[in-house]
Write a structure and sequence with these properties.
The protein is mainly α. It has two domains: 126 residues, no CATH class; 77 residues. It is 69% helix and 0% strand. Helix 1 packs parallel to helix 5 and helix 8 packs antiparallel against helix 9. The radius of gyration is 18 Å and the shape is globular. The protein starts with a helix and ends with a helix. The C terminus is likely disordered.
Length: 224
């Protein structure tokens, strides 16, 4: 159902998703645009790589929150059955708008990130149980390998498995969206997948010594 409040909610979702936390924090506190270093992405992973955990942690939290807030809070703006297909479809539309905002942020020339952290916020609002399983899968793979890209792919794969196979969703759009999540992560991580196969993918360790953090920018200049 298209209504003025739904249109307004979609615009707000896009603008919220466009908040470039990594770019603003990098420029404000480090005088660095993270998109000019490392992988060139305006996301949490590249922020950890370029600026260290003191910048990476708040960027990660903000990017998750900006995905979660529009999708979760819409329940307080409209009068719909929260289990209905109509409500779920509205949530999905808001999630897509938020994700587009993150990938193509209006505030900084439409050059954003890959959207993994923001996607996490979206799926937490859509299906908390499935999202929590995906987080456990992500953390398990990351602790074993230290590859964020591989962990993201594994976590994304677990989401449609949980939604479709374990929880047996009866809403076609939700099943389709869960599959799109996995495909999107694969597409946005094509270069990472190539580097994984070539054993050139950089590992990320969030527990870092101070001297390691001070050398992030120099190291990232030669990093993909």
């Amino acid at each position: 159902m298209i209504s003025p409040i739904n249109i307004l909610a979609l615009i707000i979702a896009y603008l919220m998703g466009s908040i470039p936390s990594s770019v603003w924090i990098g420029k404000m506190f480090y005088n660095i645009d993270v998109r000019e270093f490392g992988s060139g992405n305006a996301g949490a992973t590249n922020t950890f790589r370029v600026l260290g955990k003191k910048a990476g942690i708040p960027v990660l939290i903000i990017d998750i929150l900006k995905g979660w807030l529009p999708v979760f809070c819409i329940r307080y703006m409209i009068d719909l059955n929260l289990q209905s297909e109509e409500f779920i479809n509205l949530q999905l539309a808001l999630g897509v708008a938020t994700l587009i905002g993150h990938i193509f942020p209006v505030y900084v020339g439409f050059r954003g990130g890959k959207g993994v952290a923001t996607m996490l916020g979206i799926v937490l609002a859509l299906n908390l149980d499935a999202a929590l399983v995906s987080i456990v899968v992500f953390l398990t793979v990351f602790l074993i390998t230290n590859y964020v890209s591989l962990s993201s792919i594994a976590g994304a794969l677990s989401f449609p498995i949980m939604v479709i196979v374990v929880f047996h969703t009866t809403i076609p759009s939700m099943a389709l969206f869960s599959l799109v999540v996995f495909v999107m992560v694969l597409v946005t991580h094509q270069k990472n997948i190539e580097r994984l196969f070539n054993k050139k993918e950089a590992k990320i360790r969030f527990i870092l010594k101070k001297k390691d953090e001070s050398s992030h920018v120099n190291e990232s200049q030669t990093s993909e």
